[in-house]
Structures are given as structure tokens and as C-alpha cells.
Design a protein that fits this description.
Layout (H helix, E strand, L loop, with lengths): L1 H19 L27 E3 L2 H12 L25 E6 L12 E2 L7 E2 H6 L15 E2 L5 E4 L3 E4 L5 H12 L8 E7 L4 E6 L5 E4 L7 H7 L12 E5 L2 E5 L1 H7 L13 E4 L6 E6 L5 E4 L7 H7 L8 E10 L9 E5 L6 H5 L9 E6 L1 H26 L1
Parallel strand pairs: 1-17, 9-13, 14-18
Antiparallel strand pairs: 2-5, 2-8, 3-4, 6-7, 9-10, 11-12, 11-13, 14-15, 16-17, 16-18
């Protein structure tokens, strides 16, 4: 009679414990309101490429053989660049031996208000407008229709022309009034054309296009330089509604001068951060983590070292996988496997180039998989054993 009572008590205890799992505290999700459909058809299979020296050579050659598209430039080279005048530019005109036609040679200018701006101040801020209550810098300001007024000549359209062309036109127009006119023209303030620099630079903002050609490196330098988190490998240039990706690292590290494009009016240069330059290290490593590319490059050895290395007791050194292309081609990724038990594995791991959003996965050894299964089963077996002992 006592044995039967103990049996019933043990069974009731086990049942209450099992029932209590539904209300036990912890990170347990109630799946009663979820409906998951079983996948139809057979599971897809993916081809795995074994990493060899030839594999690495082919990857490097393919990467170098895929040039990035570059924007078209108005000028074939820096030597052929010339500045073209535009509206709001301020011109200084000098006619020798005719001071009445020459721009006043003052050192400051004011409209009679409380503010006065020096010539140096005007040149230091070529993309700004006049201060409140203040006139534009002394000189001929190009109007919105692209013209200026000059004595004896009248309205002259100058927009879209170089200073040399405008100088020759004015000299020719003054010939009936002045014998052999000696005329000089220069731009006092460049205000018509600008480039916007945004992103991870220390001083983002507009930069004026001047008579000195402005290149990508010049724009980054004049903006205070890139920050420590800037991704110079993927500088984004927007021109004419199209976006281009430029590699400033390739220019600075490998001398790829083609990446140092000449900027023009309306360009937007964005220096992104390194969010899109990550590699994910998972599996049997000491510290699964996301690793940032270092100056646009990273190898398998770099990523594993950053993650603390593989677990000596749990990892399968034959299964070091690199999964590539999941973001762009989720149904057809490229998978590479590195066998770290081979003599040349360490050398290959330092040469295999990773790309942004690659996944480096370290597999689990068969013995560890069996042990983990047993760890899940043993508590249940122990419960059954103790229950049986109580019912005896």
C-alpha cells in the first residue's frame, strides 16, 4: 500500500514539474500563437570551393580586373583645367593709366552700416554672401543673368567664359575709346560654384571651385581630413543624378591616380563610416564578433585573431568556412573552405582576402556535437532514473 502511494506521488510530482515548464520564469517563448509552414521541396545544396594558392590568386586577379566606373570630366587632365566665370562671382578689373575705369584699390569696403569686411576676409569665405547691412566685396559682381556692366562697353555677358576670354573682349570693346588698352581681370571672390563634402570628415561643408582645380584628395584635406571611423575605400560621389564609388585608399596606398577625380560644380562627396565594411566571425571561436576592414583589407587570419582564435577543444580545424555574397545573392552564395590541418594553411589564411559582409564560420567537431547532445539528454535520463527508484 505504501509503495503504491509513493508511485502515485512520484508520478504526480513529475507531471507537476512538466506542467510547470509552461509557466516557469525565464526566456521561454509561447509558440501557441505562431504558425510555421514546413519548407516544401528538398533543401538546396551549395558548392564548396577548397582554398588553395590558385584559388587566392584567382580571387585577387578577379578583384583587380573589375575597375570601378568613373564619372566623366569636363577636362581631360589637370593641366587643361580653366575656371569659367559664373553668377555671383566678383571680378576685379584694372585698366592701366585709366584709374576712372579701374576697380577701387581699397583695403576694406562697407555699405555705410556697422560692419566692414576686409579683402582677405572676402577671399577666405568665397562661398558666403555679404553680412547683414554690408555690401558685396568691391568689384564687378556678376548678375544672375551672367552679365556685368562696364563703362563705355555697357552690359557684357561673361558667364561660362574664362577670365582670359572676358579680358580680351573688354580690351577689344575699349579700343575705339582708348588707344591700345592694357587691361587685367581677375576673380576676387569665387561664389558661383561649389562642392558639398559630407560624412566622416572633421569639417564638413561647402568648398568653392576656384581657378585651382579641386580633386577628391584636395576636398578631403580642405575639409580637415577624414575621421578615424571613415571608410576611404568607398567614398561616394554624386554627380548629375548618378552615384559613383571611389577608392581613396587605393590612391593613397597604391597610387591609383584615376581615383583622384577632378570635382566640379554641384558634386556631393560623402565620406561614409565603416558600417558597410564589416566581416562576421561565428562558430567555434572564443569571441564571435563583427570585424571592421583595416584600410579596406582583411584576411581570414586577421578575422580569427580578432575573435580570439578558434576553440581548441570544440572547433573542427578542417571546417573554416568563408560564406560570401549572402547580401546580394542570398540563394547562391559562394562558399570557401580552409583546412587548417594542412601545412600551408597558415600561409593561405594570411593571404585569403575578405570582402565586406563575408561570414567566417568555424565548424564544430563531431565529438563535441555528441557531447552536447548528451548534455541535453542526461537531465531527462536522470529524472526518469530517480522517478523509477521512487516507485520501487
Amino acid at each position: 500500500m505504501n509503495r503504491s502511494l509513493l508511485s502515485l506521488t512520484a508520478i504526480a510530482l513529475v507531471a507537476s514539474l512538466l506542467a510547470g515548464c509552461a509557466v516557469a520564469p525565464g526566456n521561454a517563448l509561447d509558440t501557441s500563437h505562431l504558425h510555421e509552414e514546413e519548407p516544401s521541396g528538398s533543401a538546396p545544396t551549395y558548392e564548396v570551393h577548397r582554398v588553395t594558392a590558385q584559388t587566392i590568386a584567382e580571387l585577387v586577379a578577379a578583384q583587380q580586373a573589375t575597375p570601378r566606373p568613373l564619372p566623366e570630366s569636363r577636362f581631360p587632365s589637370l593641366k587643361q583645367y580653366s575656371y569659367h566665370i559664373g553668377p555671383q562671382d566678383i571680378l576685379g578689373i584694372t585698366v592701366w593709366d585709366h584709374p576712372e575705369l579701374t576697380t577701387p584699390q581699397g583695403t576694406s569696403f562697407s555699405s555705410g552700416g556697422n560692419t566692414t569686411q576686409t579683402i582677405a576676409g572676402a577671399l577666405a569665405q568665397p562661398y558666403t554672401t555679404a553680412l547683414p547691412g554690408q555690401a558685396d566685396p568691391y568689384g564687378q559682381t556678376v548678375s544672375s543673368d551672367g552679365s556685368i556692366f562696364f563703362p563705355f562697353v555697357g552690359r557684357v555677358h561673361v558667364a561660362g567664359q574664362t577670365p582670359q576670354q572676358v579680358r580680351d573682349r573688354l580690351a577689344a570693346a575699349l579700343t575705339p575709346y582708348i588707344h591700345n588698352p592694357q587691361l587685367d581681370l581677375r576673380v576676387l571672390a569665387y561664389r558661383s560654384q561649389r562642392v558639398q563634402v559630407t560624412g566622416d570628415v572633421r569639417s564638413p561643408g561647402p568648398l568653392a571651385i576656384t581657378d585651382v582645380p579641386l580633386t577628391l584628395v584636395d576636398a578631403i584635406t580642405r575639409s580637415g581630413g577624414a575621421t578615424d571611423n571613415a571608410d576611404l575605400q568607398r567614398v561616394r560621389l554624386t554627380r548629375g543624378g548618378k552615384s559613383y564609388s571611389l577608392d581613396a585608399n587605393g590612391l593613397l596606398d597604391r597610387g591609383e591616380v584615376s581615383q583622384n577625380v577632378m570635382l566640379q560644380d554641384g558634386d556631393i562627396v560623402n565620406i561614409p563610416d565603416r558600417t558597410d565594411s564589416r566581416v562576421f566571425v561565428m562558430g567555434e571561436v572564443k569571441q564571435p564578433t563583427a570585424v571592421q576592414l583595416i584600410r579596406g583589407s582583411l584576411t581570414v587570419a586577421d578575422s580569427l585573431t580578432t575573435a580570439g582564435g578558434i576553440l581548441d577543444t570544440d572547433a573542427n580545424p578542417r571546417q573554416i568556412y568563408v560564406i560570401r555574397g549572402m547580401r546580394a545573392h542570398p540563394n547562391s552564395p559562394e562558399i570557401y573552405r580552409l583546412d587548417m590541418t594542412q601545412p600551408d594553411a597558415l600561409l593561405l589564411s594570411t593571404q585569403f582576402p575578405l570582402q565586406p559582409f563575408d561570414v567566417v564560420y568555424v565548424g564544430t567537431s563531431a565529438a563535441v556535437q555528441f557531447n552536447r547532445v548528451m548534455q541535453q539528454i542526461l537531465p531527462t535520463l536522470q529524472t526518469i532514473f530517480f522517478t523509477k527508484q521512487l516507485t520501487k
